[in-house]
């Protein structure tokens, strides 16, 4: 899902050991010299990633794959495109959920900034 390095950068705290349970990302935050266990809703975290990407100078366009005609047994239903919505050469990242695609796109931004 999301790497702890990106999680740390997006949340502004040193984070370790993210793990997922029922729509939540559970994390350890290093705040004021101590580790604290916390959790965040996966969609809230995806929104924070979109805001972080915008602060880095990138726009994320989220859409449903246009090439899918039959919605049964579909993998990678969502696509996130970096750049303008009409740019055919823009980087695209796919996911089975909207947060998955957003996390992939923001990890690319982090690695390529």
Description:
- The protein is α+β, with helices and mostly antiparallel strands.
- It has one domain (4-112): 2-Layer Sandwich (Bacillus phage protein).
- Helices cover 33% and strands 34% of the residues.
- It has three helices and six strands; from the N terminus they run αβββαβββα.
- It has helices at 4-11, 42-55, 98-112, and strands spanning 14-21, 24-31, 34-41, 60-64, 78-82, 92-95.
- The strands form two sheets. It has a three-stranded antiparallel β-sheet with strand order 1-2-3. A three-stranded antiparallel β-sheet has the order 4-5-6.
- Helix 2 runs parallel beside helix 3 (98-112).
Jot down its keywords:
single chain; 113 residues; alpha+beta; Bacillus phage protein; 3-stranded antiparallel beta sheet; 3 helices; 34% strand
How many separate domains?
Answer: 1
Structural class: alpha+beta
CATH architecture: 2-Layer Sandwich
| Number of helical stretches of at least 4 residues | 3
Radius of gyration from the alpha-carbon trace, in angstroms: 15 Å
Proportion of residues in extended strands: 25-35%
Walk across the major sheet and give the strand order. 1-2-3
Q: Summarize this, please?
A:
By secondary structure, the chain is α+β, with helices and mostly antiparallel strands. It has helices at 4-11, 42-55, 98-112; strands at 14-21, 24-31, 34-41, 60-64, 78-82, 92-95. The protein is built from three helices and six strands; from the N terminus they run H-E-E-E-H-E-E-E-H.
SSE layout and pairings?
Elements: H1 4-11, E1 14-21, E2 24-31, E3 34-41, H2 42-55, E4 60-64, E5 78-82, E6 92-95, H3 98-112
Antiparallel strand pairs: 1-2, 2-3, 4-5, 5-6
